[in-house]
Amino acid sequence: MLQAASRTDMEKKKAQKAQVPLVCHGHSRPIVDLFYSPITQDGFFLISASKDSKPMLRNGETGDWIGTFDGHKGAVWGACLDSPALRAATASADFSARVWDALTGDELHSFEHKHIVRTCAFSESTTCLLTGGTEKVLRICDLIRPDASPSELEGSPGSIRAAVWHHSDQTILSSCSDISGVRVWDVRTKTVVRHLETKSPVTSVEVSRDGRYITTADGSSVKFWDANHFGLVKSYSMPESIESASLYPTQGKFIAGGADMWVRLFDFYTGEEIECNKGHHGPVHCVRFSPGGESYASGSEDGTIRIWQTIDTGSADLEIGGEKVKPGVDDVVRKVEGFVLSDQSAI
Description:
Blueprint lengths: L1 E2 L3 H5 L10 E3 L6 E6 L8 E6 L5 E4 L5 E4 L7 E6 L5 E6 L3 E6 L5 E6 L4 E6 L5 E6 L3 E6 L8 E4 L5 E7 L4 E6 L3 E7 L4 E17 L5 E6 L2 E6 L5 E6 L4 E7 L4 E6 L4 E5 L5 E5 L6 E6 L5 E6 L4 E5 L8 E3 L2 E3 L22
Parallel strand pairs: 1-21
Antiparallel strand pairs: 2-28, 3-4, 4-5, 5-6, 7-8, 8-9, 9-10, 11-12, 12-13, 13-14, 15-16, 16-17, 17-18, 18-19, 19-20, 20-21, 22-23, 23-24, 24-25, 26-27, 27-28, 29-30
């Protein structure tokens, strides 16, 4: 295993200027999942899942709050958007996964489960919703016929922590909360056909936007796998325990965050630490690159989302008290009027 460059090594080089992130307030409890939409004709969007039971939608570029999906009665563990960002899905401790209209905030469907739902994902075709959780069962819900019984993939050895679609909806990648490795499922046969070996339980699974790599985080390790042949491409040992990692392959950079409250940017090819961003006041539970790679977001136990710039864009943000503030928040156009909004004074 390759050892990522330490902060001490970096300090021997030219000191990096501390980055001031955009800070997105609004959640009252820890943020446990983040998801960026692809770039749409209206821009791109960021949805967050939190233990406060109120997933939120934001402008992906500015972090400005658009609205809150109100209805869950328990912690929301997972959240995602479909490709055109017209629908959102959430996975909750209230034993349900729900699909929402991302334009109005209305609930479209609620899929009941027998236990906590930890993860959800729209298929590439946007016709199906994948869910998984404490029941140790992967479910594929038909969004064209939402009243039909879901297809079930049984046999997971443990509670499902993460699950994502792969290979144009032909396969699924899943990890367990307390068992190491990633399992590759064939959707047609409903069986596990491959197993990616790790030493610790995998807390984060991501397929890169170009479809070439699978990025996983387990223990203090970040691994990159060939998405077609499933061979291990690179493995880096991190300075601290890592909970989430994300890759932007065209820039050759990846990010990682975890127990030490810092968000680190690394060189994919060498493992060298490029930047170490401090600001969160609790462990970092999730990190994700924006679809264009110009920024990345982190969600923390402290209840905030922070958006960091990969490239200095020279924005005209105001800096107040060590935080960037957009001068024209009121000028940001909501996607549509009538979105079910919570009390804006709390945002």
